């Protein structure tokens, strides 16, 4: 795995932590522990700052598998971390889904169509304005402020800070479709 792929993985984990924070499910703590561990590994291995994981400092990509400096991998240790969780209103999520449905509003992915009953009703709900950027609670309009997106598109939206506009990501997505 090269540095670019490693960065992509870390960004994906960050996106999933944001999603679980939205759900209030408590799973974000386990993911956050993994993220911290991998950020520290990135810092140690690539010389990156733990908070600037977007690219290696020296601009050189390293191969994790073939690099002789990495002779063993260690897992299973634990450490305590503290998180700030932004409250979400489940009724706002429900109202958003009632309005838009459960198809991704960027790529049109439908979990139920692909996975059957297992995927029924599954979708992430994205806040058009990052909750982390607002210091106090605020009123949310479920139709104007929230939008259903699949986990992949959700991670792509949060690949920028502040989050990319849904419409901008849709343009990128549409531009990548093969022409017939």
From TrEMBL:
It comes from the Bacteria. Residues 104-160 form the HNH domain. GO terms for molecular function: endonuclease activity; nucleic acid binding; zinc ion binding. Pfam families: HNH. The lineage of its organism: Bacteria, Pseudomonadati, Pseudomonadota, Gammaproteobacteria, Alteromonadales. This is HNH domain-containing protein. InterPro entries: HNH, HNH_nuc.
């Amino acid at each position: 795995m090269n540095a670019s792929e490693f960065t992509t993985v870390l960004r994906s984990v960050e996106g999933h932590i944001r999603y679980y924070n939205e759900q209030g499910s408590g799973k974000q703590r386990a993911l956050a522990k993994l993220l911290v561990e991998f950020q520290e590994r990135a810092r140690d291995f690539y010389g990156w700052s733990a908070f600037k994981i977007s690219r290696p400092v020296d601009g050189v990509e390293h191969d994790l598998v073939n690099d002789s400096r990495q002779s063993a991998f260690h897992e299973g240790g634990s450490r305590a971390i503290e998180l700030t969780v932004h409250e979400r209103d489940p009724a706002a999520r429900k109202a958003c889904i009632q309005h838009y449905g459960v198809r991704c509003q960027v790529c049109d992915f439908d979990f139920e169509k692909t996975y059957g009953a297992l995927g029924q009703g599954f979708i992430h709900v994205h806040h058009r304005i990052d909750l982390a950027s607002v210091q106090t609670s605020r009123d949310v309009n479920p139709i104007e402020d929230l939008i259903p997106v699949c986990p992949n598109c959700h991670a792509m939206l949060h690949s920028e800070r502040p989050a990319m506009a849904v419409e901008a990501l849709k343009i990128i997505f549409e531009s990548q479709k093969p022409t017939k």
